[in-house]
């Protein structure tokens, strides 16, 4: 391959190094396993020490750097909430709502005393359905059961406006493979699921739990067979089917859609149906399944969804299946963690406002902006130098890159929770029902209106980041802007290797196998020439096949098609951030650029910082679960699967053909 020369003269890069004091390397040498050979198993070398020092406790099915930072954030948020919850506050104030919701979540004694009473009214409503003519209205009004999901989001073909979207739902295990695969482990999970359903029905006072369990499995399996797989769900074109309500009525005549939407409380003239075969099958089920069986399924959805909000015995039964069988966890999370999770989930931005005020220094935002600016320029350079892409498509790609909206830390305008009622006199379940209704009405309030581009889709305290194709935006909440992702006291090698790759990752999502379908305005419009799209698909196929060859457990391989978007983003993030790092280094004195610190060169520290982001331990059950359900590759393979595709890693670590991780240059992935 022809060597590409990048010149600094064309772009002025802002150095992100702090000049007021000597910075650390950011690399914790205790994280390393120096008995491992980095050229043979880079993940073990970079993360082995961390893994040994952070063994899995009974609470976790997986515990990694993400989780450790998340735990730190959770403890910080818990301190803020506990301080509020210990005092009385005026009814209707944010403090009252946060404090009462937390105290309700912590009061297991009250829930044990209340038993299943909080859900009796909902169960009675389902039992009171006497004929099929009532189903459309009941499903529209229901908060706890359905055969499909409705939500408001940007119209993929008109990203400036919001539209109602439909999405497949109705089967509690989530992934269709759990109902259909016949391998030993999946069959064991299905058998345990049936036993769990039977037990839960018994705890809710039903005497025919065994019969009901078989009914639920049969009906969920029917829905799952018609559902799209996780790979099929990744195709944005196939999952966008805009139509009028009259066309929807013709497509699924078994539902009275006028009654359904009236009960939902909305008026609309069009909708985007996500997965047509699933919705049609759901309609047929409403017409041909015995009414009592439909009511059994709806009852199951209510009681399964309520398990975390009722008695300790019911919660334990749920954990024994979802926690132990599915994920391999041995113990539930402590009650305080679950309580904080509920408050974060119901009053997230209100909590986030407190979190930011105490824990997010403004100088972090300034340094992040400099990093993002440099990454954006570096991706532009890489696009301009692509040999496989035409000038016509490059121009469109650069337009999209330059149109990115960048959100860092927290929203400029905080969400209003005035309409959310939290009343300590009511049950925990009733308060959460109101919170769910509040969220639904908040979402529905955007229907038919212009998209609010200031809206955030994560709370500030979240340890994560995202790219939203419909608004062409990248977002980095305050929660992730901490070690091991970001360190104000560390040098650029560390920060480019850690948060820099995260930034590049999110940027690359705008150009992965899904993001490539959306233009600079977030509209699902083809901006590629036919030849360029073909070349892109050929190159992404190399990535897909590379991960298909990875054996994540004995006899179980990674799903390269399912994880393709995230793997492309990891690859792009590494390529773009490393280029930005190199160009940033060029602005420094030569002695500083070449300085070895803690025994490693700047380039080596870049890759160590990246690997440390994915340090973690995981249970065998969770490996299998995530291989079915998670579009991200497992942590080990986000390192050992990704780095052998990066030429700079070979140079930094002197990786030769003798290394078991070596991939010939002509066989490596080369996309962005």
Structure, explained:
- With 672 residues, this protein is α+β, with helices and mostly antiparallel strands.
- 51% of the residues lie in helices and 8% in strands.
Summed up:
This protein is of the alpha+beta class. It contains 27 helices and eleven strands.
What is the strand tally?
11
Question: What value does the Rg take, in angstroms?
Answer: 26 Å
What shape does the CA trace take?
A: globular
Residue ranges: pLDDT <50 for 5 or more in a row?
1-20
Helix content: 40-55%
Question: What is the terminal separation in angstroms?
Answer: 15 Å
What percentage of the residues does DSSP assign to strands (E)? 5-15%
Oligomer: single chain
Mean of residue pLDDT values: 94
Q: Which structural class should the secondary elements be placed in?
A: alpha+beta
Main sheet specs: 4 strands, mixed
């Amino acid at each position: 391959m022809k060597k590409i020369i990048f010149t600094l003269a064309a772009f002025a890069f802002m150095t992100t190094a702090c000049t007021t004091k000597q910075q650390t390397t950011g690399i914790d040498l205790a994280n390393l396993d120096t008995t491992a050979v980095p050229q043979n198993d880079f993940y073990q070398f970079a993360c082995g020490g961390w893994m040994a020092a952070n063994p899995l406790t009974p609470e976790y099915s997986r515990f990694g750097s993400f989780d450790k930072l998340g735990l730190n954030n959770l403890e910080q948020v818990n301190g803020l909430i506990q301080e509020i919850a210990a005092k009385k506050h005026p009814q209707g104030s944010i403090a009252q709502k946060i404090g009462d919701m937390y105290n309700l979540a912590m009061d297991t004694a009250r829930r044990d005393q209340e038993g299943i009473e909080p859900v009796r009214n909902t169960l009675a409503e389902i039992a009171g359905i006497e004929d099929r003519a009532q189903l459309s209205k009941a499903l529209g009004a229901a908060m706890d059961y359905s055969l499909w999901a409705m939500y408001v989001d940007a119209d993929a073909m008109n990203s400036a406006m919001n539209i109602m979207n439909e999405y497949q739902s109705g089967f509690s295990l989530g992934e269709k493979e759990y109902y259909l695969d016949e391998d030993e482990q999946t069959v064991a999970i299905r058998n345990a699921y049936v036993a769990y359903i039977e037990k839960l029905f018994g705890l809710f006072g039903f005497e025919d739990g065994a019969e009901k369990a078989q009914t639920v499995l049969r009906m969920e399996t029917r829905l799952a067979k018609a559902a799209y797989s996780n790979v099929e769900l990744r195709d944005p074109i196939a999952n966008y089917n805009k139509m009028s309500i009259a066309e929807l009525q013709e497509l699924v005549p078994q539902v009275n859609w006028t009654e359904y939407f009236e009960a939902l409380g909305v008026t609309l003239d069009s909708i985007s149906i996500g997965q047509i075969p699933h919705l049609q099958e759901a309609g047929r089920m409403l017409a041909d399944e015995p009414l009592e069986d439909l009511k059994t399924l709806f009852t199951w959805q209510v009681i399964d969804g309520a398990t975390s909000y009722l008695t300790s015995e019911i919660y334990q039964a749920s954990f024994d299946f979802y926690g132990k069988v599915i994920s391999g966890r041995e113990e539930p999370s402590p009650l305080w963690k679950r309580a904080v999770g509920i408050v974060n989930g119901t009053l997230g931005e209100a909590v986030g406002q407190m979190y930011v005020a105490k824990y997010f220094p403004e100088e972090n935002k300034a340094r992040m902006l400099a990093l993002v600016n440099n990454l954006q320029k570096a991706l532009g350079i890489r696009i301009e130098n692509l040999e496989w892409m035409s000038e016509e498509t490059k121009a469109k790609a650069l337009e999209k890159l330059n149109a990115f909206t960048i959100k860092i830390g927290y929203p400029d305008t905080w969400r209003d929770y005035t309409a959310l009622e939290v009343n300590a006199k009511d049950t925990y379940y009733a308060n959460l029902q109101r919170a769910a209704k509040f969220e639904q009405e908040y979402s529905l309030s955007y229907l038919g209106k212009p998209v609010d581009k200031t809206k955030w889709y994560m709370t500030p305290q979240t340890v994560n980041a995202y790219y939203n194709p419909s608004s062409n935006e990248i977002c980095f909440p305050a929660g992730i802007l901490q070690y091991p992702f970001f360190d104000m006291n560390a040098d650029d090698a560390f920060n480019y290797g850690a948060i820099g790759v995260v930034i590049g990752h999110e940027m690359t999502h705008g150009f992965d196998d899904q993001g490539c379908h959306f233009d600079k305005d977030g509209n699902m419009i083809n901006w590629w020439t036919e030849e360029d799209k073909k070349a892109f698909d050929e190159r992404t196929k190399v990535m897909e096949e590379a991960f298909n060859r990875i054996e994540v457990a004995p006899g179980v391989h990674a799903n390269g098609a399912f994880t393709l978007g995230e793997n492309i983003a990891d690859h792009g993030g590494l390529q773009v951030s490393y280029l930005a790092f190199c160009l940033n280094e060029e602005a420094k004195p030569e002695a500083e650029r070449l300085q070895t610190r803690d025994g490693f060169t700047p380039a080596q520290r870049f890759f160590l910082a990246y690997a440390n982001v994915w340090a973690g331990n995981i249970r065998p059950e969770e490996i299998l679960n995530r291989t079915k359900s998670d579009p991200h590759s497992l942590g080990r393979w986000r390192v050992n699967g990704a780095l052998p595709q990066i030429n700079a890693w070979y140079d930094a670590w002197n990786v030769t053909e003798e290394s078991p991780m070596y991939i010939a240059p002509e066989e490596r992935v080369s996309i962005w």
